[in-house]
Amino acid sequence: MGVQGFQEYLEKRCPGAAVPVDLLKLARTVGRQPPHHHHHYHHPHHPSSLPPPPPPARILVDADSGLQRLYGGYQTDWVCGGEWNAMLGYLAALSQACLYQGGLELVVVFNGTLGKDRWPEWARRAQGQRQTAQLIVNHVGSKATPPPRAWFLPPACLSHCVRLAMFRFRVRVSGLMPSSRGIVDCDVRLANFLRFYI
């Protein structure tokens, strides 16, 4: 069970567990708490040395499940190609709001590869996207209006573009690579990443 599977399980089995959270308020609360240190930082030669400041609170974002939201969501001109500047503006505002206004460190995790066990799922999704693209082309050609919101189809290179934009805005980016043991190992790597960085 990956992060998305865990989230789906919580939404189905514990409907009250998923609640909206004001992240800036949460970061301010965490920032006001005194640090819990298990050892003292006083050095015999420097009696007034202070403990190091606590690291900022971190927000871990699963990029693959939130890719459409990182793109900026649905925009009326997405068929024409005018969405890239809007996407960059949205990601710049997100990174600045987290770091400068909230004191939060944003960590974005991408799934590095598609395991062999997920190839049939990818093929089904690609076939559905081809059919949607054909509907979009037919709609724009015949009606000369933007397609319905339900047909929103993000660009194929979106994951790479979001990753490059995150690098540009100095957001920490990580990629998970499933090994020969499959996605279970990928989940273990995610858990180890969380233990180390958060």
TrEMBL record:
Residues 34-46 have a biased composition (Basic residues). InterPro entries: Coact_PPARg, PIN-like_dom_sf. SUPFAM superfamilies: PIN domain-like. GO terms for cellular component: nucleus. Residues 33-56 are annotated as: Disordered. Belongs to the constitutive coactivator of PPAR-gamma family. This is Constitutive coactivator of PPAR-gamma-like protein 2.
